[in-house]
Amino acid sequence: MKQRKRIYYNAEQRRLIWDRYKQGDSLHDIARMFNRYHTSVMPTIYRTGGYRPPERIRNPISLTLSEREEISRGLASQESMREIAKKLSRSPSTISREIKRNGGKKGYRANKADDAAWENAKRPKPCKLAGNKALCLIIAQKMKAAWSPQQIAGWLKRKHPNNEGFQVSHETIYKTLYVQTRGALKKELQKHLRTKRAVRRSRQATNKGRGLGKIIDAVPISERPASVEDRAVPGHWEGDLIQGSNNSYIVTLVERKTRYVMLAKVPNNKTKTVIKALIKQSKKLPTELYKSLTWDRGAELSNHKQFTLATDIQVYFCDPKCPWQRGSNENTNRLLRQYFPKGTDLSVHSQLRLNQVARQLNERPRKTLEYETPAERFNECVASIG
Question: Fewer CB atoms near the end CB (10 Å): N or C, the chain?
Answer without folding.
Answer: N
